[in-house]
Design goal:
Structural class: mainly alpha
Radius of gyration: 29 Å
Number of strands: 0
Largest sheet: none
Number of helices: 6
Helix content: over 70%
Order of helices and strands: HHHHHH
Length: 127
């Protein structure tokens, strides 16, 4: 109760104690909601990284379960390199998915905007 009152002013009657208790519980729920929202935002920001780490963990378990490091020492390195490459190229895949969903008109406008620099150079070169 001391966290809600003003120090030397404390609830005395049953109604005051009930009110302060209610405010105390409500404040705790609001605090928990805010912390939960912040944690949700933080975890959503690292979604791709978490997926990549889970895939790498699964690959490492596969390598360990099949003794690939002992049987073919270079193969685990190549497999890990491939997973790293696939992770780095995933943004390109996402760009293609976005472009595929656009209408032809919007796709054309976006293509002109993104390639404007080298298109201007080609136009200048041809004149």
């Amino acid at each position: 109760v001391a966290g809600i009152t003003f120090g030397d002013i404390v609830p005395v009657t049953d109604l005051e104690i009930a009110y302060v208790s209610f405010v105390f519980v409500l404040s705790g729920a609001a605090y928990a909601y805010i912390i939960g929202a912040v944690c949700t935002i933080a975890s959503a920001m690292n979604h791709k990284k978490s997926e990549f780490n889970e895939a790498m963990d699964a690959l490492n378990r596969f390598i360990r379960d099949h003794n690939l490091a002992e049987k073919e020492p270079s193969l685990p390195w190549r497999l890990r390199d491939f997973y790293r490459f696939r992770h780095s190229a995933s943004s390109v895949v996402n760009q293609h998915e976005i472009l595929d969903e656009l209408s032809p008109l919007l796709r054309g406008e976006l293509a002109l905007f993104l390639n404007r620099g080298w298109l201007n150079q080609v136009t200048e070169h041809n004149t």
